[in-house]
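Run log // design_07
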């Protein structure tokens, strides 16, 4: 190995934690700012009445971007697979701008997607300081480190950030070669976040669990229940998207109609918890507070309508909220412990809806502790096995199984 290769690898070893730290820190500050601003806006009154304008504004921001297709959630997945992570920096302000408008005015979106895009943008920016310095594979590793750092910023969970980025965004082979650098980047990111004042999310403390046949039966039944909810959610997303496209062929009509429908949904139910980032709703569920029984289905509808109407943002946070509120619903049905099933519902529904069981298990252990290993494993395994070939990330499923069929 010559001196040039040694220097390049040493520089890569320096760049991996730097990328993770910058990605997590900037994504964390961005998320924190959005959440604080969102809370202030909600105090001003019925902010959701501006939803049609929010979707119109999001459409306008997208129309100003020369690479409009790259702002579509599925196109972003395609880009990360086909171009091996080479995210176009010019589109990043448009993505984040459309997300901010959508989230602040009530669109049901999540923050994980924008956080991952921030990480990808930062890593690309660092690579462009001196183009050609790293090999294509090393560039992929650094980009994935940035994405892992972005995912880590969502909950402060480095294992989840690294595993999920590798599983969802990189479905081709040799994942293990990227996983260790991703973990190093994610742990560098959480250390950087702590210096900025990050505090772990407060959750329901389960304590010691006695795993008996009765509990196992309830957990298996819960996994089946979550799989059914995942099928319902995936079906709603596809049905709403097709229906809106058929009834409202122009983007402007989609935006106005979607906003009006969400306003009517709030007025009819008297609930607006399903709108926006819904962070308080997630915190209440995970703290053990019973939620409005139809809330998971309201969140499914709000999320589906938001994306069909032109809203931009991530879908992971809505998935987590649907899962936790579904757990609350199940606990009320069987008169069980709401906090326990809300936590298991969050990770079990996530595993089923995204086809990412290992990421779900990592999230379960990091957020809720190792006492949740066996219950989490049962619920995640059952829900994932039953759903298996379905996912809200259709690009992921299409690529994974087309490769399997070829082999």
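design_07 sequence
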């Amino acid at each position: 190995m010559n001196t040039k290769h040694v220097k390049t690898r040493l520089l890569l070893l320096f760049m991996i934690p730097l990328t993770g730290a910058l990605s997590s820190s900037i994504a964390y500050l961005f998320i924190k700012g959005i959440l604080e601003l969102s809370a202030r806006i909600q105090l001003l009154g019925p902010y959701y009445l501006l939803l049609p304008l929010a979707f119109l504004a999001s459409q306008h921001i997208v129309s100003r971007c020369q690479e409009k297709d790259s702002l579509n959630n599925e196109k972003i997945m395609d880009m990360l697979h086909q171009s091996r992570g080479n995210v176009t920096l010019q589109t990043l302000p448009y993505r984040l701008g459309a997300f901010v408008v959508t989230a602040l005015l009530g669109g049901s979106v999540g923050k994980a997607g924008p956080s991952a895009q921030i990480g990808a943008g930062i890593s690309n920016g660092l690579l462009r300081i001196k183009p050609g310095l790293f090999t294509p594979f090393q560039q992929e590793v650094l980009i994935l480190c940035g994405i892992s750092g972005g995912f880590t910023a969502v909950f402060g969970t480095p294992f989840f950030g690294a595993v999920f980025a590798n599983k969802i965004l990189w479905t081709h082979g040799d994942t293990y070669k990227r996983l260790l650098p991703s973990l190093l980047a994610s742990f560098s990111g959480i250390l950087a976040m702590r210096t900025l004042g990050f505090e772990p999310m407060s959750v329901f403390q389960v304590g010691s669990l006695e795993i008996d046949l009765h509990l196992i039966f309830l957990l298996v039944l819960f996994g089946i229940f979550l799989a059914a909810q995942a099928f319902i959610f995936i079906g709603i997303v596809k049905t709403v998207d097709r229906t809106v496209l058929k009834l409202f062929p122009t983007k402007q009509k989609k935006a106005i109609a979607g906003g009006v429908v969400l306003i009517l949904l709030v007025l009819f139910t008297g609930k607006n918890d399903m709108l926006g980032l819904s962070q308080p709703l997630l915190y209440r569920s995970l703290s053990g507070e019973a939620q409005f029984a139809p809330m998971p289905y309201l969140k499914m509808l709000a999320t589906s309508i938001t994306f069909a109407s032109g809203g931009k943002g991530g879908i992971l946070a809505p998935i987590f909220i649907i899962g936790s509120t579904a757990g609350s619903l199940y606990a009320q049905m069987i008169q069980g412990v709401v906090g326990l099933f809300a936590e298991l519902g969050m990770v079990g529904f996530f595993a089923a809806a995204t086809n990412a069981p290992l990421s779900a298990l990592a999230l379960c252990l990091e957020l809720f502790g190792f006492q949740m290993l066996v219950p989490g494993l049962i619920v995640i395994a059952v829900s994932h096995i039953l759903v298996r070939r379905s996912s809200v990330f259709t690009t992921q499923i299409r690529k994974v199984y087309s490769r399997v069929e070829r082999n």
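The longest helix spans residues 3-43.
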